[in-house]
Amino acid sequence: MRQGQTSLQKNDQVEVIAGKDKGRVGKILRIDRENSRAVVERINVITKHQKAVGAQQPGEIVKKEAPIHISNLMLVCPECAKTVRTGKKFLEDGTKVRVCKKCGATLIKSGK
């Protein structure tokens, strides 16, 4: 695949296949296709020390998800509940859909 091209979409359930969070599962919150990175719920959590801004907002320690490279993520099929590779297929009405390579189930756009 070229840089920025992926079959992963927002709200997909993915598993981390490499790195410190290997084996953990989460939902994709955002995708940055330009840099091939995704922000996944409860994965790659970092601690950021936020400086105080005036008297109204005190300084604090914030935990938030940092982006992780797309190559370290693998889609979890909702039908067979396993990590899978995906293929493309055209339906009778001409719409292009993703297909699970293990069980053959069509993966409909999640989140809508």
Note down, in words, how this protein is organized.
The chain has strands spanning 13-16, 25-32, 37-40, 45-50, 60-65, 68-69, 73-76, 83-84, 86-90, 96-100, 106-107. Strands 6-3-2-1-7-8 form a 6-stranded antiparallel sheet, with no helix packed on it. Strand 10 (96-100) and strand 11 (106-107) form a beta hairpin. The chain is elongated and about 60 Å long. With 112 residues, it is mainly beta.
Walk me through the topology.
Blueprint: E1 13-16, E2 25-32, E3 37-40, E4 45-50, E5 60-65, E6 68-69, E7 73-76, E8 83-84, E9 86-90, E10 96-100, E11 106-107
Antiparallel strand pairs: 1-2, 1-7, 2-3, 3-6, 4-5, 7-8, 9-10, 10-11
What's this, in brief?
By secondary structure, the protein is mainly beta.
Q: Which descriptors would you attach to this protein?
A:
112 residues; mainly beta; three-stranded antiparallel β-sheet; 11 strands
Estimated radius of gyration: 17 Å
For the largest beta-sheet, the strand count, sense and barrel status come to:
6 strands, antiparallel
Order of helices and strands: EEEEEEEEEEE
Structural class: mainly beta
- The number of E-state strands comes to 11
Poorly predicted tracts of residues: none
Widest sheet: strand ordering: 6-3-2-1-7-8
- Helix percent band: under 10%
- Tell the overall outline: elongated
Number of helices: 0
- Assembly annotation: single chain
Q: Report the portion of residues in β strands.
A: 35-45%
